[in-house]
Amino acid sequence: MKIKDILRKNERGFALEFFPPKSAEGKNAFMKVVNRLRAYDPLYVSVTYGAGGTTRDRTLNTLTWIKEETDLPVMSHLTGIGATKTSLRALLEEYEARGIDNILALRGDEPKSVPDFDPTKGEFRYSRDLVDFINKTGSFSIAVAVYPEGHPQSPNIEKDMEYTKEKIDAGADFAITQMFFDNRYYYDFQDRAAKQGITIPILPGIMPIVDCKKVTEFASFCNTTVPRDILDRMEPVMDMPEEIRKLGVEFAVRQCEDLVRHGVNYLHFYTMNRSDSVSEIVNAVGIKSQE
Length: 291
Ligand code: FAD
Fold this sequence. Notes:
45% of the residues lie in helices and 13% in strands. The mean pLDDT is 96. It is an alpha/beta fold. The site of flavin-adenine dinucleotide has 23 residues, from strand 3, strand 4, helix 5 and helix 6.
């Protein structure tokens, strides 16, 4: 089912993002997580795609497992960097054949795991080009990534919004944000997007913190601010994983409750392939799919 129709039908709800397990042996553990979270009735689930196609088959297999074992609507992430039109046309045909009809169209970043990776061999410069390419097939509902604090490579937030509008106008039905921890960035982004004439749903990407060090490293890579009050609470318990996880749930609940109070109807959770934190957050916030 196309997510643009799901969002039209459901007044509110939440979505879940997973990454593909490293090997086929991970399937059982992965599907247990999916099935546990499925009980909360997510709007859709998405599976990430290693930039440059490094998880092409694993992403496809993971989406296929979910489709075979559940009735959940699925979305594939897909990156254009380094890819040719011929290779992505073949992949899109494969998606269509398997009933995968939603795609998060991304540029991606150069994969560090491929030392001789040459992005100039690709035929998609920006995600806008990939959105346009997918849109022309007429077969998919398309999402794009957006950045409340600006993409790290954007010269400034004005240009960032201009390019955001361009990629949405190329044919995106909805957008999902980079993680953020201070909702003011999201509300400001919403205002700036509305002024730019952007009207599609913008789902906030919520990251429940489970590993303080990893999240702060990733946050600095992707230009996300981790507020001082969050760091102050986490630093004293840095070496106590369960304490950090509980704090991560507390922060995410506070963040989601504030978003809901401000009229945000959809949330997109970065699950990190775990069910514990997200189920606790969804229970506490009480956000369930509602037609
Ligand atoms: P673009 O929209 O192409 O933007 C990239 C940069 O180019 C920006 O700085 C933008 O301002 C600039 N730009 C855009 N258009 C123009 C133009 N016309 N002229 C000049 N500059 C321009 N990565 C993965 O590899 N796999 C995943 O599964 C994945 N999932 C993600 C999910 C979400 C929700 C988010 C937020 C990110 C995800 N990413 C993923 C990361 C993403 O690939 C990176 O953030 C990447 O650096 C940018 O991708 P994009 O699609 O936003 O690029």
